[in-house]
Model the fold of this input.
Amino acid sequence: SIKFDSNEVVLSNGINAIIGDNGTDLLILINSKNIVKSQELVVTFFNSQETKASLKSFDKYNKLAIITVPLTELQDTTRSAITYAELSNSAVSSKSGDLVIAIGDPYAFGSSIGYGIITSTGNEINGVDHNFSLITTDIYGSVDANGVLINQKGKIIGIIDQSYNSKEFANQISAIGITELKTAIENLCNENTPAHMGLYITNVTPFARQYYSLPQGVYVTNILLDSPAMDKGIHKGDVIVAINDAVVSNVIEYEMEMGSYSHNDNVVVTIKGTRPDTVFNNTDQTFDTYVIESIT
Done:
């Protein structure tokens, strides 16, 4: 369990996965939504040992954080019993019909567990500057469920996130595939702040290219309020075809290019506008460029 001494918020129902160590500190993956206001963080291990922890890094867009506990502070019995969580390749190893276990707090009333089967995989969902794959299950839980999905080998295949569920399936446990989150977790472990422009994107489909004469690129489906992209005039409906000198023809290329930048970098974005003040259905391949300053 994890608690904040400043306001006694207890997070024993979170992700709380020990994912490794860096030689000096234990690295623990947690949900970041309650950590911003904390002053002191305390981790309670299985044998009731309580140890102060420090916030290493957090990603507000992916709702993840890494906290650390000095290895020197661990009792011998605690350290010898710890095993590190293994992250599976959810894109390859998870398929409909597989047995899965939800641990952490799928029922939102304290540490709990549930099990069932995967009902679907590969459902694309739009995050900020990154797309993810949603795994759905037949496990009936809480709309406030938290924790992870593991497979029969005990490996993590997804981080539980109910925010993408439809109203009809609000209580069915769903999770973001761990494959798409690995880079974000690695960045957190290495204290690399991911760069964000604040865009929700998808691929330009062959249909849109043929019937609307849109270029190959990524289509902006929505934009985060007060984001660097919004501040500089990028709109919903624009098509991004390049970032700096790198051609962007699909979401994967966009994500890879954004991954090469850091917080506060400046980038030049080349777009094909589809707003009312531009000609939408045409073959004119002129593009606008925007300098996005201090990406967050």
Notes: The helical segments are 76-81, 90-93, 178-189, 206-211, 228-231, 251-258. The first strand starts at residue 2 and ends at 4. The mean pLDDT is 84.
